[in-house]
Amino acid sequence: MNQPLNSQKILMPNGQYLSVPQAMERAILHHQSGRVPRAAEIYSRILKEQPVYADAKHLLGVAKRQQGEFNEAIKLINSAIKINPKVAMYHNNLGQAYRAVGDLNKAKAATSKAISLDVNMPESYVNFGAIAMEKGDFDAAISAYKKALVLRKNYTDALLGLGDSYLKSDQVETGLHQFQVILAYAKGNIAALTRVGIALRLLDRIDEAIEHYKKSIFHFPDEADLYNNLIYMYQRENRFEEAAECLRKLLKLTPDDAVARHNLNALEGFTTSTAPAEYIREIFDNYADNFESHLVNKLGYHIPEMLLEAILKSTSKRSGLSVLDLGCGTGLMGVMLGDYCSYLAGVDLAPKMIEHARTKEVYNELVVGDIEEFMKNKESASCDIVVAADVFVYIGELNAVFSEAKRLLSPGGIFSFSVEKAVDEKSSYVLNETGRYGHSKKFLQKLQKKYGFIERYFEKAHIRNNHDKPVYGYLCVYSMSEQCSGG
Length: 487
Hints:
Blueprint: E1 9-11, E2 17-19, H1 20-32, H2 36-49, H3 54-66, H4 70-83, H5 88-100, H6 104-117, H7 122-134, H8 138-151, H9 156-168, H10 172-185, H11 190-202, H12 206-219, H13 224-236, H14 240-253, H15 258-268, H16 277-286, H17 291-298, H18 303-314, E3 321-326, H19 332-337, E4 341-348, H20 351-359, E5 365-368, H21 371-376, E6 383-388, H22 399-408, E7 409-421, E8 429-431, E9 437-439, H23 441-450, E10 454-466, E11 469-479
Parallel strand pairs: 3-4, 3-6, 4-5, 6-7, 7-9
Antiparallel strand pairs: 1-2, 7-11, 8-9, 10-11
Helix pairs in contact: 1-2, 2-3, 3-4, 3-5, 4-5, 5-6, 5-7, 6-7, 7-8, 7-9, 8-9, 9-10, 9-11, 10-11, 11-12, 11-13, 12-13, 13-14, 14-15
């Protein structure tokens, strides 16, 4: 039997003894003040003495979610719900935890339960709106955010969500208005300031967007998000000197920012061996939802189709293939190869890209991770094809990948990939102002010979557009000898 809450004493981290209610009050104060680890420690101490205290379980679960321990958060909040299933906030926060691990169906169910238990809690409608937006149901998201605003006028999270929903559903002017409403009563809201600039850009009011960010940075010079958006605008408009100056200022604020460092290296002409993982993840997670339509419709991207054609010209095998799709993205290459495979594995650094690839239902294995580490964990001579479509634009030094491809391929196996063409063919590879690498024909042929590949196909091709101008690269298909493979 647990003792009554008032009689039970809790040893606090400072050596003081408090009753359970006093300890909870202290923990909540820490929690509300942003001292989440200290709050979590006190909740844990309370639960050692009162293991069925639902509020402590719930709040410890909330703290764990805030600390990135999502599965532990789900476990704790579900445990609180078993003790007291009729507390709406428990279900609402459970929904947030499920959303954090990408289980949107369970997130929606938990949040819907919260709303059914308390129709007057605006936080639940905000979370429901966020889940609906992630699922692409913008009408449902807009409806939920509006309900939250009926319950709490000028609720900032609801206005931000409503504005985002309008932007994503191409109602940009209406979205811009929501952000301006926030700034009317909270001029220093950085999220709203950032989104105003995004909306102006989407409306093609480029000069206004740039001036907006410059003015915002003048008033809030320590906000990295404002710099990042201004840098994007400058790069988009080919105003590279101004972008570089902004990047230098940003790096004074955030000296460990690998993404900013990579972008500055690109603009200053300093070629590194590879783009940092953070840079790749940020790019592709940020636009995973619109990735395919943007590539195909705006960039004229058809590398998967072109590589498939090149591969089929280079091998007579048409079935039962074991294929590794490096940097698989949303699965465009996998869809091309799916009919020819008995086993198809994909790897990508960006979790959201992998989520989209999973919906294609063509992969036997999908992994979030680094391509070289992924390759090292595969058995030698286990693959018929290793393919990398538009991947090596983020890797300059390719020796390690070539070495692993040689080890993994069975006799006669195919190594197929695309690269951007280096502007300077005298260099092995160059980091361009775009942040992407270009490779020289000479370098690729040197690697082909070094690792014993046979050239089956090597063609210059128009691989994409950049600001409506063609970008050229090489489509390559190399093979192993029929007699040997592996390292």
